[in-house]
Amino acid sequence: QLEDGHWGRLERTEDLWLRVRKEHAPRLARLALESRSLQDVLLHGKPRLGRELGRGQYGVVYLCDTWGGHFPCALKSVVPPDEKHWNDLALEFHYMRSLQSHERLVQLHGSVIDYGYGGGSSIAVLLIMERLHRDLYTGLKAGLELEPRLQIALDVVEGIRYLHSQGLVHRDIKLKNVLLDKKNRAKITDLGFCKPEAMMSGSIVGTPIHMAPELFTGKYDNSVDVYAFGILFWYLCSGHVKLPEAFERCASKDHLWNNVRRGVRPERLPVFDEECWQLMEACWDGDPSQRPLLGIVQPMLQGIMDRLCRAPSQHPHHGLDDST
């Protein structure tokens, strides 16, 4: 009788959890976005859009001189093209709002839903965030010396570790989602693909060259962020934004994904320090269980930085170029 009473209970529980994950969580997040946006516009008014700072696939980022006692600000304007993107945006707002302020994450000041955006032709969500100096892509193009690049790597690891400590997986760590202040200290932004580890649905998201191979199977955990950091660290150690040759030769996303699944990774450059190269290889290991924990990566990076930057006369570096 006991067995009969519990037969199928696990399957029913999983079905219920799937409904919560797919339907109820995005709906509640959207209600929270709408109510908080109404509160913000009543308290602080509608923000004024300044000059354009950049744009992505679904949104434009503008300068905003001041809003709600914060200045200067950046304003991310997003026009969700469909229900799925509305849900993603609402969840991004929810995660950014629910996280405590952390020095390695870009802070969200507020949000406003603009029903007259584009002359009334569309509805836009305006996310008002702290304004930083530039993104990492722009920073590397302009030229960064070795010590700031290694410090950025440490900052990014600290930010990812904090997200993981809150049960969240970023899933889109890349150059343009790392912002730098005027002292070249880094903060992680764009939590649009961020999800609680327990709620990841198996959807394929992210930026192709930073995506771990298991993302294509739909079964993955927070080690996908470790993989993405390994690719990011390749750029930081190279000091430039040029695509790795193995990726540049790919004619399409499918070609790239197939190569990654077969184990193709960025090439070793002559300027790479041996320990840096070993760390990259460990982070982008094809077996997620073999990737190092970020709690191990962080002191390794600190040791590399101390060896290469803090005492050059005692510990000459082995090729990691400091001239870019």
TrEMBL record:
Single GO MF annotation: protein tyrosine kinase activity
Q: Please state the protein's primary subcellular location.
A: membrane
Q: What is its EC number?
A: 2.7.12.1
Question: What is the protein's species of origin?
Answer: Thryothorus ludovicianus
Domain of life of the organism encoding this protein:
Eukaryota
Q: What is the lineage of its organism?
A: Eukaryota, Metazoa, Chordata, Craniata, Vertebrata
Family to which this protein belongs: Belongs to the protein kinase superfamily.
| Reaction(s) catalysed by this chain's protein | L-threonyl-[protein] + ATP = O-phospho-L-threonyl-[protein] + ADP + H(+); L-seryl-[protein] + ATP = O-phospho-L-seryl-[protein] + ADP + H(+); L-tyrosyl-[protein] + ATP = O-phospho-L-tyrosyl-[protein] + ADP + H(+)
Q: What is the name of the protein in this document? A: Dual serine/threonine and tyrosine protein kinase
PANTHER family per the UniProt record, alphabetical? DUAL SERINE/THREONINE AND TYROSINE PROTEIN KINASE, DUAL SERINE_THREONINE AND TYROSINE PROTEIN KINASE
Query: Which InterPro entries is this protein grouped with?
Result: Dual_SerThr-Tyr_Kinase, Kinase-like_dom_sf, Prot_kinase_dom, Protein_kinase_ATP_BS, Ser/Thr_kinase_AS
**UniProt-listed SMART domains:** S_TKc
Chain residues that bind ATP:
76
Give the keywords, sorted: ATP-binding, Cell junction, Cell membrane, Cytoplasm, Kinase, Membrane, Nucleotide-binding, Serine/threonine-protein kinase, Transferase, Tyrosine-protein kinase
Location in the cell: Apical cell membrane; Basolateral cell membrane; Cell junction; Cytoplasm
Any GO BP: positive regulation of ERK1 and ERK2 cascade
Question: What gene codes for this chain?
Answer: Dstyk_0
Which Gene Ontology terms of cellular component type are present? anchoring junction; apical plasma membrane; basolateral plasma membrane; cytoplasm
Enzyme class, UniProt record, top EC level: transferase
**Protein kinase domain sequence ranges:** 47-301
